[in-house]
User: What shape does this take?
Amino acid sequence: MTDAALSADQQRPAEPAVLDDVPGWFWDQDRHLFDWFLGRQEKAGRSGDLMEMGAYLGRSAIVIGSHLQPGEAFTVCDLFDSDAPDDENAAEMDMSYRRTLTRTAFETNYLAFNERLPEIVQAPTSTLGGGRVAPGAFRFIHIDASHLYEHVAEDIQVARTALASDGVVVLDDYRSAHTPGVAAATWEAVFNHGLRPIVLTDSKFYGTWGDPEPAQLDLLARRGTLPHCDISSESVDGHRLVRISGSDAGADPFRVSRHHARLAAEAEHRAAEEVAEEAFRAAERDRETADRDLADRRARAAERRRPTNVAKRAVGDLLPPVVTSAIRRARRG
Ligand SMILES: C[S@@+](CC[C@H](N)C(=O)[O-])C[C@H]1O[C@@H](n2cnc3c(N)ncnc32)[C@H](O)[C@@H]1O
Assistant: This one.
């Protein structure tokens, strides 16, 4: 079937009711930490732009965008349905995103939770370099686009220029077995380009080109206050860093989407319809069984009323049992 053959309803991306309805790779532990970093900046009266490189269907962008303050801009850069700039990146896109990713689906998801779309750059993240983003204007940048070394190393340099001195950069998949390029680019930035680790989670590296200590002390002060979370501190070649590990359990859920009430009512309506349909089908089955029983009873009664059977019964009733069995024996013989 071609797209043209699909109805408008079938072509429309599904609207999410809750953040978990948006596919992606953004888990509660990091959602909680994004909220914490962004909220901490806001409480301190900090203002600055926000950026995400690699948004996929919007799962993390929705959360970042929910922190946008008046006067700030949120830039999202992703290829969405466009071609990748090189073969390796194209292979990465084909393997992980092409079948599911469209810009329309991203926009539908994003607008389900936020009032306005971010500024969308539908292009390779490499186009953000060369003066396209204002130097020092950003307070928070999430790097989660291509996971190939050359791309991530370039994205880190864009972030370095774009971030304000106390801005926070987050790198996804800095330690996954299938993304050695991110690990290489991340630690290269730490050892050679002045990036300072703040905190590491199972999936993400949080760092700054400013002073990591105030955020680290605030995080360490939360030790023992987060259920299911272990917060510890250690040093890597003189770089102090905080580690957060543990389960996602206990994190407050993200607020529901603007479609939640309608989708819940529709789901309730569908469930009620299914119950009514099942009750109707059960009544039908009962009626069919009753009809079959009645037909069987009638057939048996009709059988009993057949003249030969009536005669047999009469003979059986009238002749003495000895004669009846003698007749039966004679018939068998
Ligand atoms: C891992 S996904 C992003 C996941 C998303 N942040 C989330 O939390 O669900 C990576 C995204 O990067 C995009 N991407 C891959 N290579 C890119 C490139 N060179 N420039 C811009 N975007 C790219 C893909 O289209 C995909 O949407």
